[in-house]
Amino acid sequence: MINIPAIPSLLRGIPHWVCWRYVPRAGGKPAKEPVNPKTGYKADVGDKSTWVAFDKAVAYYTNSHSHLNGIGFVLTTTLPLVGADLDNCIDDSGVIEQWAQAIITDIGSYSEVSPSGHGIRIWTVGKIPVSGRRQGSIEVYASNRYLTVTGSHVTGTPNDIIFQPRMGEIFDKLFPAKPQPQTPQPNAEQVGINTGINTGVCVLDDESVLNLMFKSRHGWTLQSIWNGDNPSGDPSRDDLFMLGALAYFTGRDPVQMERLFKQSQRKRDKLGRALNKKDSTTYLSATIQKAIAGCQKVYDPSYGKKESK
Q1: Alpha helices (H) in 19-133, listed in sequence order
Q2: Are residues 247 and 298 in contact, defined by beta-carbon separation less than 8 angstroms?
Q3: How far is 309 from 306, CA to CA, in rounded Å?
């Protein structure tokens, strides 16, 4: 159930609302698919025509005859809102774990219990350096994402969304920056990938690549794949789709592609497994090779939106 009166007025006044439903996915917990309240079909966080005003989303959810599971709010670059998601931090007796309570206290804004009853959502006004990031049980987003809203207010937190001027500092504390390699990166042949295509070291750092990728036309799908989901239903196909995007934004740099892929939630034993007894090439290396071979254009930062061959 949604506690409508407890939902902050700041969110209710912005027409960025969708509904959502659980959809099964292979090998994991169900995904929360955003739903367009105007059509009943899947909503798109990159298409505002699929979002509605708060009252319309609530009405559609209320009249859904149980085929929907809740409502959600879409975060965009045009809003100063930030949403933090803390997973698996409430035990069966309702006690919030200390690490999560410390984050709630640090941000100091409206907080609510997630639909599962075991997570926390924190809403604040502030600024973070990227569109969003996930690590372990902690996720923080400012755009290219929708977040479920329950109105299940956490006692002791503000009833309204509060401006947090230190949000960037808090974000950096939650996600410490990893030092970039200072030595020249090896080429494709040195990592065992012979593509026959011109590859090189990307001019963009890892954070810039991810920011661009998640803001691209397929940003929602790529974010979902990055988080370990399989939107197509085929994990190998989704691996290739994300690696294709990484090939585009890294300039077909296999070393950076592999490094970024391994930072995602798609880690599994298959990645380092040889294709067969006669070929020692790993699944991940072979998929990177296939993605590079299929990448006909690369991102050219010096010409804005212009693509280079």
Answers
A1: 54-62, 98-107
A2: yes
A3: 10
